[in-house]
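Inputs:
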Amino acid sequence: MTESLLSVRNLKVDFRLNDGTVSQAVTHAVRGVSFDVPVDSTVALVGESGSGKSVTALAVLGLLPKPNARVLSGSSIVYRNRELLGLTPRELTALRGAEISMVFQEPMSSLNPVFSVGFQLIEVLKKHLGFDGKRARARAIELLREVGIPDPYIRVDAYPHQLSGGQQQRVMIAMAIACEPRLLIADEPTTALDISVQKQILTLLYELRQRRQMAMLFITHDLGLVAEIADQVVVMRDGEIREQGAVTQIFSAPQDAYTKALLACRPPLNRRPLRLPVVEDFLRGAEPGIDTAERRRGVRGGAEIILEVNALSKHFHFREGLLRKREFKALANASFKLAKGKTLGVVGESGCGKTTLALTLMRLTPASGGSALFEGRDLLSLTPEQAMPYKRRIQIVFQNPYASLNPRFTAGQILMEPMRIHGIGADEAARVNISLDLMRKVGLPQPAFFKYPHEFSGGQRQRIAIARCLTMQPDVLICDEAVSALDHSVQAQLLNLLQDLQDEFGMSYIFISHDLAVVKYMSDEVMVMKDGAIVEMNDADAIYANPKNSYTKQLLASLPGQGAAVVGGAVS
Amino acid sequence: MTAYMIRRLLQFVPTLLGVVLLVFMLFNWIGGDPAYLLAGKMSNPEQIENIRRQLGVDQPYYVQLWIFITQVVTGDFGVSWATNEKVSTIFATRLGPSLTVLLPMLIVGTLLSMVMALLVAYRRGSLTDRAIMIGCTVGQSISILVYIIVFQYVFAFQLGWFPVQGWGQDFVTNLIKFSALPVLVGVAVSLAPDTRLYRTFFLDEINQDYVRTARAKGMSESRVMGVHVLRNAAIPIVTHVMIQLPALLAGAFLIERFFSIPGIGREVLLAVERSDFPVIKAVTVYVALATLIFNLLADILYKAVDPRVQLK
Amino acid sequence: MTLVRVFTAILLAATLAACGERASPPVVSDGADSKAGKVLRLTFQVAETGFDPVKVSDYYSGLVISAIFDSLLTYDYLARPAKLKPNIATALPRITDDGKTYTLTLQQGVYFTPDPAFKGLPHNRRELIAADYVYSIKRFLDPKNRSPYAFLFEGKIVGLDKLAEAAKKSGRFDYDAVVAGLEAPDRYTLRIRLTEADFNFSHVLAFSLVGAVAREAIEAYGDDTNAHPVGTGPYRLQRYMPSSKIVLEKNPGVRDMFWHAEPGDNAADLQIATRMEGKKLPQIDRVEISVMDEAQSRWLAFQRRETDIEYQLEELAPKFMTMDGKLKPEYAGQGIRMERSVDAEIIYLFFNTQEKIGDKPNPLGGFTPEKIALRRAVAMAYNIEDQIKIIRKGQAIRAYYPIPPGVAGHEPQYRNSIAYDPRLANALLDKFGYRRSADGYRQQPDGKYLILKYYSSPSERDRQFDELMKRSLDAIGVRVEIHKDRFAELIKLANQCRLMMKHATWIADYPDGDNFMQLLYGPNTGQTNSACYRSSAFDARYEKSRRMPDSAQRNQLYREMTRQMEVDTAWLLTDSRYRNVLLQPYVIGYKKSAVNAAEWMYMDIGAKEPR
Amino acid sequence: MSAVMTHETSPGLWALAWRRLRRDRVGMVSLVVVCAYLVVVAAAALGWIAADWPREVGVNYAPPGFAGADAPPPQGSLTPLPTAAAADEPGIVDPLADVLAELRKGLAAAPDAQARAATLPLGGDKWGRDVLKKVVKGTETSLVVGMVAALLAVLIGTVLGAYAGYYGGRMDDFLNWIYSVFTSIPYLLLVLAIAAVLNQKGTLTVILILGLTGWTGIFRLVRAEYLKHRTREYVLAADAIGTSNAQRMFAHIFPNVSHVVLVQLSLHVVLFIKSEVILSFLGFGVGVETVSWGSMLNESQSELILGKWWQLAAATTAMAVLVTAFSLFTDALRDVLDPRLK
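Outputs:
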């Protein structure tokens, strides 16, 4: 290994869970982490939520939230032979942005909304390079061009909200590289972006690093991404390093069970195992062999149709000018059929109308036109009273497990409520029995019945949400990004559960996600949406193998491992 | 933008109509009959009837309401029943003194509490922060009446630093000499709650991601707080101040009364005591209008300081 | 950028503040400020309403009006009881025709202050003539002016009411019409013919609001006459910020007047007379009046010598006075003087004597013995001594007689027949069957719930009266409910005989007993007789008294009437307030006017020594 | 079957909030102070203490005990004139003359007036009433006024805000119209107008004035909360399972905005206690049958300059301590109920 630019030794960070009161529980966010970032290379810090990866990154720049976080003694962060822990504020500010800079996850909130991007760039140049206003502005425009912002002369005066998410992240990167730092720390720089944009940003970072010969500490939860960009990989879990090594070694011969699990739990693109391996399997030591049995997907002609959607539209109106109204078509003429017992995957980037489709089908927002025939009746034209018996037949699981359960209800209350409304179960005792039964089915322990949502993890909450739907024995279950907010290892568990339930109850799924791999794994048919319209629909395997629409092609091209040097994601 | 303004201005109409109706009902229908007061010490029914005719209060309610609405539209509220002074003159002449006290009070108070709030927000959780916050809470818990009584007694009377009360003829004298103590009282009263409020504004901003970005860029703490945080926190503060002003116009009556400042608030009290309906009507409508306009101004100003805001 | 806006706002405020003054009479252009000369600074505790004599009724507006306008007659500055004296008239009126015709001759060479209204005349001014008084008196009855003092002339002057009646019909008062009872046979003679004999009409002519206005000015200023007084008096309005600041300056063209008065037999009067006699009037060049609502502010201001004279500090009196009515030595030592007098007013608690209030029975009204007993018991239970000692802070004297000191007809030796005696009041109520129910409060003799309603306005002062009333009536087991309403509303209710019990104040319009005794005259119910008291015994005597000049016979009638009122217990007379006027050491010649007129023209400012 | 399960008590959000509050020292001290006041209020309301506050036990303006007594004032200069019989004027007959004469004879000699204290613990007011007892009684009135008025305002604001925010559209337009009308009218005029309409009826009027004018801020906040919550996924989920609008508004959303309402309730108690003082100054305070901090401060306005500072000091202190404690408690409450801490 070459000369080390940054070396972290035995880093320990404690967090006080602060709510303004005196003594608090302390969590050990980072428990003795050591790794090196060599000159002119990329080190990826990989881990799921709570692994301590971001805390480690923030500790390098001394940006840990002041009153709550504490770096324990014995820790050491050495940058070019200088100990960073214990620098004076003045020394730190001289270092930040000049020698070491950082890019964050949420570009929108990380840029100051009330200053133009030019102002924010110029600020750095003035501070560290001592440029005067004119020179700084010229340099800012140059930087914007370098990170690929079109029309940099104009955009330099734009405010962050006037740029797209990808452009905002480019501006962040421009700010980070403005003073030619030797080390760039990128903390999940692509996570908040649409898939097609993710790819561009990754490429940009990759190229910049190469061109400028700076080192990069790349932090991510997505092991798949790492393959394309990193030289070294550090895998973290619960504040500790599970494994570190060269990227090829990690991908080809992972030593740690957790690393192995992380690699295996993503749905592969080229196969469709009956079950996805989960972390527990690996940690238990019972490393599952490659399951050769595969699930057959696809809708064959003549399948029974449970839901037929025709020309479904949803328009929103915005005021424009004094009297004019601008129409925004969130959903335009969507028509499709859902086969009984099958899964229809819906993919598309943010704003494509996926969620509007779900809400409209659920009658949660009124449709502007079209019909949705369920057992021959148009669900959308029913009166609220008429719709009541159909309500339980179509149910939905939402994306955010933290928002979709009423925090003031216990799990039991959440499960009992729909049964009471629809008169399911003979009496309360019967309903309690059904609830407990379902809870077991979705993998929740019995005492959970009396617990409140905040006592559950994200995955457990989604299980409750699923159980809530099951109480009504729906025929159609819409999963609106139901697993997107979860860690990959948890995603796998939930996907397995959904699959098991479909097998048991024969429900039809409308599976909405931006995650192409997950959709492919789960779906019989896939529907691609863009700007409120369905651009392509076909059997899952067909569409992935042979996309017809140019947009579909573009989307699929952004899948990790498609056309990149290193084959990642679904390494076999 | 123009379309937005026009639409907002059109929205004034129903609100003003509501104000007109409510005021008309409250004061005309159920409120007092000024004829007896105006009739003087020895009034006979005939005189009362004459006065009622002169004032137009003998007309059916719908006619009076219609007259009121015409007055609102034309902006001509006629003359005060008590003094025969033109109502528009009353309003115009009382506005100056009110503003001479209110604006310095608002400006000094806002600046002071902003500085205090910024300081304690930066040192949040520290002993200073807690001490100042508890001090503010205590300060806030004392009635404005006590502030006025005690300040007037101590600063004007015992120490003689200020005139006890009064109002002069030229702006500078009024501002320097007569407004000083009322402004001081006003600032003392508003300092505690405003500091507390602005502190929360600052705290909301301090935890934002862009602050971390600014630090990561190597900006000094003073620049982070004084430029990045301040500019963002200024948005709710400016709005708060703008929206306060019309309410203060009639709301500073205690200060105006104790310091004999011929402002709007004192005029309102006088008008109510005298059942001077034209003045009450005018003040209500003007203040309501001012409230609406200042709300609109606050929104426009909001746009000026916050580029994210789109006025549609 | 925010700052720029703020400064714009300040500039705007400055502009507004500069426009904050109402335009003063535009002729005043000389640097009156620079040669201000002797300045008298004082305060009003209540805002004035304006300076058009026919449009105002409040005390403070009246004071300013008395300094700007001239009435035909006036009162001697020092003589007490008040003594009439010619002012614009060359002598007291010739009263002929058995008190029905009044003839006066005016001084020549008296001019109105210059004003643009007199455009075209030399120096923009005009001489005062008898026709001005004709016009000025007519204005009181013009319906458009809705004058609060119309009653001074209503039904009194031959032919004038007919003109007013016609004006009500046509909507326009014909000032050019000839009125038989109001004539100016020549430029300087005024003849007034009354509908019936009235020997007190001279008081009306001396009333400060019956001053001469100029028709040109009134017509020129239209609705705004309240802010543009144009008179002949010693002062004119120089600067006016309504409800805040009034500045008077010496009328530059004032007629020659010299200080002369008849001092009473006391040292104070004599001292004033020695210092002032023969001086040219007025001595004070400028009077600056500020309106200050709060007594605390006024007292602090006086103490810091921001004001020269302080008229009324009732509730703060203990601050500067000892219990026996002297100025405290620490203030006397500074040379501050106090001029103490009793106001020509009475304060009384009236009981509604009508049997019904609206359509509900009035537990307090009627003339059956048990109703009188209830009123008497209330009167005996009400603790006047506490009212004077605690609410008035000792700054009032007991009132026993409906006519206060200093007013013709006052009886200093009169003995009241109702004394404070709650024990007797209790016994009286027991006797008449007002039994106590379980909660300790009394019922009506017929077993009905007894509840008395006392009315007052929502001020801190009135709250003290409420407390006293409740304490007093609790002592005899009578339940009282306090009703609060705005002043205007209370007047309305009083005129409609809808108030059961309330304190009322009557301040003399002119120093004659009739002004007070009419308060109990039956036909004045609905006007000034708030007790709605109707007693044939009283009314007969009152009617008789009206046809008499001030005399012993009239006083005898007044005594009987007073006794009758006591027997029927329509009122409980409580007190008349002291007026403790504080004067800075250099203020000379102050004596409280016998009527509501300004003293400033008779006063002077001496040299101010450093404090 | 539920009987089989061991009923583990699981801490709900309220219980968690309480746990957090228990750890907040300032918050707990404030709570204790507020509770102490409530105990005093309860005791006063039940008549256990200060029931005899109207009794005049001291000399007028008796100074507080620690300040020492004033020199006794010289005996009253008011010597009333002897009374006369009505009959001394000819022709005037007093119908009660005989009765009175008879009764007068029956009355024994007047008992000696009770001796009055020269000093009182916290001084006396102008009638010689005990300021300490007045403060206690005033605490009762002011706190009750503040709490009941706050409840009223919160009730109005919450119900209207819930309807406006939840339903949106026409309902929102209409309620917003009422809101903007109320907020556009100068508060002073609104108070005076409503006071005039209600007529003076004592404590209840004060509560009504404060409640009817003070709901607007709560309305705005609750409306915003409902606007936010009605599109939250848990509400959509509740809609999806077929709950009614009323169930969603009150059973689902309300518990989740209740912390906002609770904090507003607490804030408004303080606000209204302070507003009561201003109402008293305007003459629309409580009636003479009771006493409040506002009426005391208002009385003491003119007393201070006479050197009688104790009523001002007592009322101000009592109020400052409560309001401070209440405000600090509100802060603590806001902190522990902050949904971000869940």
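Remarks. Chain C touches chain D through 59 residues (CB under 8 Å). The CA atoms of residues 457 and 486 of chain C lie 6 Å apart.
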